[in-house]
Each structure stands twice: as C-alpha cells, then as structure tokens.
UniProtKB/TrEMBL annotation:
Residues 194-261 form the BTB domain. Residues 27-157 form the MATH domain. Gene3D superfamilies: 1.25.40.420, Apoptosis, Tumor Necrosis Factor Receptor Associated Protein 2, Chain A (2.60.210.10), Potassium Channel Kv1.1, Chain A (3.30.710.10). Residues 1-27 are annotated as: Disordered. Residues 13-27 have a biased composition (Polar residues). PANTHER family: BTB/POZ AND MATH DOMAIN-CONTAINING PROTEIN 1 (PTHR26379), OS11G0619800 PROTEIN (PTHR26379:SF483). Pathway: Protein modification; protein ubiquitination. Belongs to the Tdpoz family. This is BTB domain-containing protein. Pfam families: BACK_BPM_SPOP, BTB, MATH_2. It comes from the Eukaryota.
Amino acid sequence: MPSSPSDVLVTNAGRSSASTISTDMETGSHELTVSGYSGSIGLMGVGHHVPSIQRRRAQLVHPIYYPDGGSEESADWISVYLQLGNQVSDGNVIAQIRFSLLEQMGEPVPSYTVTSDKKDLSAITTHSWGWPKFIKRKELEESPHIEGDSFRISCHVTVFKIRVEETPVQFPATAPSTDLHRNLGDLLESKVGADVKLRVGQETFWAHRCVLAARSPVFKAELFGWMQEKKTAEVRIVDMEPRAFGAMLHFIYTDSLPEIDEGDRRVMAQHLLVMADRYRLERLNMICEDMLRNYIDTTTVATTLALAEQHGCRHLKERCLNFFRNPGNTMAVMATDGFEHLMSSFPSLVKDLLSKVAP
C-alpha cells in the first residue's frame, strides 16, 4: 500500500543535510628565457614549437614557444601557447591566462601583455589556447627588451575550481580553527615552565628548551648536544640585536612576526635574515627575503646585495642584480657608501657585476 504524505514526513523526521559550493583559486607562473634568439629563427619552421622540457612532476602551467609562428598566417610573428598540466585537467575548472614580454628589470611590458577571458578547460584542446600573433619578430628585434640576443616571457595562469559537496549534518558545531600559535605565544609571554635563560646584550629572555629545539636544529644541538649550553641554565648570545632577537623568539613560538613599524621594517628584516641563517629557520629566511625585495633602491641595493651574497639568498640576490641592469641605476649606486662596502667585501662579485652592465 502506498505511503501517505504524512508517512514520508515521519520517516524522514530528524534527518538533515547540508551542501557547500566553493570556489578554490590556484595560481601558477612560468618565466621563459630565450637565449640565442637569432639562431632559433628559421630553425624549427612554421607550426613547430621548441620541445618542452621534461619534468618529473605535473606542472600547473607551461608555455610553448613558436619562434617561426604557429601557422602560415602568423609566420612573421612569435606565437605563444599554454600547455596545461594534469593538476587542472579534471572537474569543473575555469582558467584565465596572461602572457607578458618582460623588460630588462623583469617587469611586464604593458604594450606586450595579453590576458585571456575566463574559459572552461574542458572545452580547450591541446596547444589551442594562446596567441598566434603575440609579437612581431621585427618589433621585438627593434625593441630595447631584447638584450644580448636574449629576451624573457612570463606566463601566468589563474585556475578556479568549483566544488559541490553534500554531507549529512551530524553535529551542530564544527571544530574551531587552530589556536596552537596563540597558546604557544601565551606560553612565551607568561614564562611558565621556562627552563633556559637567553642573554642578549643587556637583556634577558626566558624560553623553553624543547620549543627552541623543535624549531631550530642549531638550538637543538646547543641545548641537547654535547655543547656547554646543555650544562647551564643561561645561554649568552653575541652579535645579536635584542629587539630583533625578541622578534625571532616570537616567530619561533607563533610562526609569525610581531607588529613592526613601517619605518623599522627594512632594518628589522636585515637583522632577522642574519638570525634566520644562523639558526637555520628557513621559513623566516624566505619571509625576510620577501620583505627586503620591497626596499630595493639606489641607496639600499648595495648593502642588500652584500647581505644576500653573505647569507646565500639566491632570489634576493637576483632581484638586486636585475636592479643593476639599468646603467643609470648603476652609476647612482656607485656613489653610495654601501657600494664601497660591497667592493671591499665581495670584490669578485662587483667585478662580475660591472662587466655585465658595462656598455
């Protein structure tokens, strides 16, 4: 006998469900450097791209370069296309790409920057998304953006993944977000259970051996190895600025930096970079590199380059070297005290640098 409407209501009573539609955004970029440009013209032929480099893992984005154009209609042009990796090939995925010719300083050239509309990736066939007429070869060859028979193109992709999830509601509340960083920060501030005293200049900091050892292999060796610090409750730390050391302790406990005044950010980042290298705090090192990249000008680039060279900061060093590619910048920097320090500390680096920017 068929159930009545009231039977259905009673059968489903007490049940509830919930669904969520969310959009995740991923970004990826790839910088392509073409060296020996003149030698590649006519080598591949129309419709043939330079073979892609083989990679061990699927990449989010990889540009394809046609030196002789992607078709007969674009034979006088350079064509660029996008090859998508496996990471963005499934599901409801919308993407948008941007290609840019880069100037010598590494910044996009607005007149040679193209951005696509947002597209559903399921409707895109292999190698079909891009610009057959990205830039005329004659225009490129006459532009200041090709130097030493070399130029650079950046490809940036933004991917939007749409997810729909439906799950039964079993509990009225969800777990709150983690508060571990706040708890450890309170532990540092309260000094409860602190078992090691760190003497920096005229200031004293109390901390917990286990926390320091868990975050820094250097502290681990000093506090739990066969070193003198294992046998004493006080550790003296030399050549460190107390306020910067306190900021590093805050990072060790909370994985974040305290509030820093804008006027102090560059100097504080320099001190913290030295400490991050000394105590092998890789994430702090990367944060400081990123901070210092925003403070590169004619008055700071020499000291920043010396710091990057001394502490092995490859990305920060490259940013400084790109600044020197402009001859006008180089002449202004050479008049600063920081450049004299750079010459006395790293003469071979300066010699190599000047040889690359000399007319």
